[in-house]
Amino acid sequence: MAEEFNTEGMLDMYLFENxxxxxxxxxxxxxQKDAECFDEDSINEIFRTMHTIKGSSGIMMFDNITAVSHxxxxxxxYLRESHPENVPHLDxxxxxxxxxxxxxxxxxxxxxxxxxxxxxxxxxxxxxxxxNMLKNGIAQGGAEQPPENVHEExxxxxxxxxxxxxxxxxxxxxxxxxxTEMANVxxxxxxxxxxEIAEDLLYSPDDIIADEGSAELILKEGxxxxxxxxxxxxxxxxxxxxxxxxxxxxIFECKAEEFLQGFDFGxxxxxxxxxSSVEEIESKVQETAEEAGEKEVxxxxxxxxxxxxxxxxxxxxGKHKTLAKDKNKVEKASFISVNVSKMDQLMELIxxxxxxxxxxxxxxxxxxxxxxxxxxxxxxxxxxxxxxxLQNVIMSMRMVSLANTFQKMNRIVFDVSRKLGxxxxxxxxxxxxxxxxxxxxxxxxxxxxxxxxxxxxGIETNEERAQSGKTEKGRVILSARTEAGKVWISVEDNGxxxxxxxxxxxxxxxxxxxxxxxxxxxxxxDVYQFITLPGFSTNEQVTEYSxxxxxxxxVVQSIQSIGGALDIESQTGFGTVMSLKIPLTxxxxxxxxxxxxxxxxxxxxxxxxxxxSVRENMMIREPNGDEYVMxxxxxxxxxxxxxxxxxxxxxxxxxxxMMLILEVEDKKICLFVDKLIGEQEIVxxxxxxxxxxxxxxxxxxxxGDGSIALILDPAGLLx
Length: 719
What we know:
The protein is an alpha+beta fold. The strands form five sheets. It has a six-stranded mixed β-sheet. The protein has a five-stranded mixed β-sheet with strand order 6-8-9-11-10. Strands 20-12-13-22-21 form a five-stranded mixed β-sheet. Strand 8 (474-483) and strand 9 form a beta hairpin. Helix 1 (8-31) runs antiparallel to helix 4, helix 3 (63-82) runs antiparallel to helix 4 and helix 11 (340-361) runs antiparallel to helix 12. The longest helix has 25 residues, at 374-398. The two termini are 68 Å apart. The model is unreliable at 1-6, 139-143, 152-160, 266-276 and 295-333 (pLDDT under 50).
């Protein structure tokens, strides 16, 4: 039996479910961190979460996770039963988050295949001390102590029946949603949870772990449990709750004699819905008669059921009676977990489909004179519509809310502010904004650095704020919004702000300033960008969170790798706003295809503000070779694409080509190209790292004629 035991699928389910539980736990705790105490619903929710994690970890034999979750469960069991006053709320919040961190770290080890060897003894010791402190407070008040939350680890699931006068007997029937994966594992978790109250416990099918086929049987026929215990029906329902996996729980209390008859649940009176049609009722009667006929050989025939024989459930007095009806027939959203790698593969296939569509629609065979392409154009338009809809669907599947990422920042603010002794409020705006999952993976670390800087660098200590006359609390606002195909994520604080003179002095010391250029010639934005350079820090004292000159350069590198940018605004004494501008997705973009010389290039549509044809008399040329163009009284620097990349055979006269006015981060430039080809959906393909070193390139794509075009990075062209 042990050789057939396969935990691989169970392990995936264990990690997935506990990760969801820990996220919900952390969200709930952080939402109420500023309250005076947890409300009753939160206490019950945290207790149930720890109880669930304890049970599933016990099944998987992760003893350290089981021990620490059981100890935190003890704490909330005590809070739930005793309702003590004057509970140190922030200390309790820190204990909960410490346990959540420990379990998360152990789960990371499980994912990586490392030994689950974390030492939980220190955490358990601190929780014991906290619990004893609460109990001592109760004892001093003269209140009665609640019973201990005892966790007994049985040696087997079938416990010898020892019935007493207080014993009660139940037949339990569970049905699962049809889309539930690994129903046998969920059934096993239910049994494991019931064992703590059971005097006698049996279940069918009985081989639910070794026999993987039992999952299908459970989905089809349900899961049956016989329970002997000294508890009420409500206590059982508290343990077996209807959720995203269990559709319905039927509990029948019975006599000891009926209990000993075993799993014959079929003797229950038949119940139907009289609101059904006559045909449905007759069909039910016919099915029952046929089943009785099949059993004639094995057992005596039972009386045929007539419509008047069905049991009617009584409703409240004064109301009409109806037959029992399945009250759980509620429309339920269906979800399925999909491996991210499969989503990436699907996205790649969509990209290839877009390229193939371009190849078909731009085929040179279609340019033969005299061809009647009416039917082809209709079919092509329909295909393009389906292709676009398919892109939109797959993109919506990949879009993920920023809520989880923002909640992690909430945790960082809480931890850092507590350690630094700063009183800081954290506010989230627009956390439901959705971006591509790959984008979220790239912005988590930059956001963490920015939030830490805001708490450590930006917000003053409580004493400093009082001395400067600031009466309000320190505040960090994390916000997100979408605009023109981009996502703006801002971290704003009401702290001391950036010191322009201090930054300039540090920059001059490091040789970053031009000796021939006065300080006044540098704009505030130019000065603030110095703090994003590697090794640049104005913090004179190295702390746990800052002062080493690393962090902001990591932010810039990570953001630029996905085509984003960082914008910094600050006012000395009033605070700082750092904004990330990032694309919604990295996969498919709308772009303008253009040619210079014998090469094709693509520029993202959103950065192009205007196409302009210019004349030679509009050009201004400096002795050093710099060129400018006057358009409607405004002067723009000119970047000739052919000259920028040292190409041959590009057009020299501006009257023979086209100017593109580009705008990036409030900076404008005119890009001169030979000719425009048209607008097209572009599938972004990565380029080798050695090509990325060339300024102004961010990727490549395949055009409809099969040729390769380089995707231009406008930020690189502005340098």
